[in-house]
Design goal:
Layout: E1 6-11, E2 17-21, E3 26-27, H1 34-44, E4 52-57, E5 63-67, H2 75-86, E6 91-92, E7 95-98, E8 132-136, E9 142-144, H3 153-162, E10 167-169, H4 175-192, E11 196-197, E12 201-203, E13 211-217, H5 222-232, H6 235-250, H7 256-270, E14 290-291, H8 292-302, E15 310-312, E16 315-322, E17 325-333, E18 339-346, H9 353-369
Parallel strand pairs: 5-7, 6-11, 7-12
Antiparallel strand pairs: 1-2, 1-18, 3-14, 4-5, 4-13, 8-9, 8-10, 15-16, 16-17, 17-18
Length: 370
């Protein structure tokens, strides 16, 4: 049932392993790695943590936006922020974007150059997951596919240049391009509030003499964000959270190395995972390696937070998929809502993970009925 390129582990609610194969072999976890990223974020940031975005006016009457890595700064949030800002600044000159909370040279291993949303770049100041959702009208014009989100000039230019047809796309190659898009969205929504903009969008930094006029605390808690991350297996969210918590613990600017250092230390010091290898936080990289036995350790610590996961009947789970890779990890609840733990790693094609999962559930149910 499981080849040499796969692993299987099943444990009862007491943590006793009742089924195992290749459980110590390090394999590619794919998106089940998000379980560890979420667990570390809960540990270092807390369930109730909220990302901030700050707004300043300088002596030249420029509006400055400083981002802190908020992974869920969406159009609805920007619209609400703009209403608040309109009460504090009726006009301004340049719009200055400060995205220095993250390093400018972040490269996520495994992230490609496609326009798929899972390839969206990380950044300290991003909007709508660094993606644009659009359609083409009958005459070929580019229009937003979201009622609240306007189509901005910069986004339209990028779409035209890449010859895209429609859908939700990652059209930005780096965090500076994503910040420009976020800035244009702010200008659109501020314009709807009658705020006058007299200059241009530029990159810059907040200075000590700048006047803070508003701090936006995200309407979403970390718990809300992790639920979204798990539901949609969102790679962008996972690495935004990883880089942000690295900056939180080791000081800014946020870098991938700091996030990985924190993730590795947490796994080793608190979960007693000694031999895993982490390249990023979402599971998109094939350089990530962990054993089924170590994933079981993660599941045991994650059990109090298992309601963050998707549920199908008595099974709460996280899937992972890469080309030729299928993984599945989570819990099977008994009649008393106590969890059995399961890990399935398949690192080669030709296996049917659904049939393997059915066998795992049968073994779990047999043990439950004894």
């Amino acid at each position: 049932m499981i080849s040499s390129d796969g692993a299987l582990l099943l444990a009862n609610p007491d943590g006793e392993i009742i089924l195992k194969k290749n459980e110590t072999k390090k394999l590619i976890p794919a998106s089940t790695l998000k379980l560890l990223t979420a667990l570390a974020a809960i540990r270092y940031l807390g369930h109730d943590y909220r990302f901030n975005t700050e707004f300043y006016l300088d002596k030249m009457h420029n509006l400055k936006i400083k981002g802190y890595g908020d992974p869920v700064l969406i159009s609805e949030s920007i619209q609400s922020i703009s209403i608040e800002l309109a009460e504090r600044a009726r006009d301004f000159n340049n719009l200055i974007l400060d995205d220095t909370f993250f390093s400018q040279d972040i490269s996520i291993p495994g992230r490609g150059s496609s326009t798929n949303p899972y390839d969206a770049p990380a950044g300290a100041l991003c909007a709508n997951f660094n993606t644009v959702f659009f359609n083409r009208s009958k005459n070929g014009h580019i229009v937003s596919a979201e009622p609240v989100t306007p189509m901005t000039p910069y986004a339209r230019q990028k779409i035209e240049k890449q010859g895209l047809k429609g859908g939700r796309c990652s059209i930005f190659s780096n965090q500076r391009e994503g910040a420009i898009y976020a800035g244009e969205l702010f200008l659109q929504f501020l314009g709807e509030q009658g705020v006058k903009f007299n200059g241009k969008i530029v990159h810059g930094t907040v200075n000590p003499n700048d006047r803070l006029i508003y701090t936006y605390r995200s309407e979403f808690t970390l718990r809300d964000i992790l639920i979204k991350m798990m539901e949609f297996s969102n790679n962008f969210i996972a690495n935004q959270v990883l880089i942000s918590m690295g900056a939180h613990v080791y000081s800014p600017p946020g870098t991938l190395d700091k996030g990985i250092r924190l993730l590795t230390a947490y796994a080793k010091d608190e979960l007693l995972i000694e031999d895993a290898e982490f390249a990023e936080g979402s599971g998109i990289s094939r350089k990530n390696r962990i054993s089924a036995l170590d994933m079981f350790k993660i599941l045991k610590h994650f059990a109090p937070h298992r309601d963050l996961l998707k549920k199908s009947g008595p099974v709460l789970y996280k899937t992972g998929t890469l080309d030729g890779i299928r993984t599945l990890a989570g819990y099977i609840l008994n009649n008393s809502d106590e969890p059995c733990y399961f890990v399935i790693f398949l690192n080669s094609a030709g296996h049917n993970i659904d049939s393997i999962m059915e066998c795992v559930k049968q073994v779990c149910n047999a043990g439950r009925n004894n």
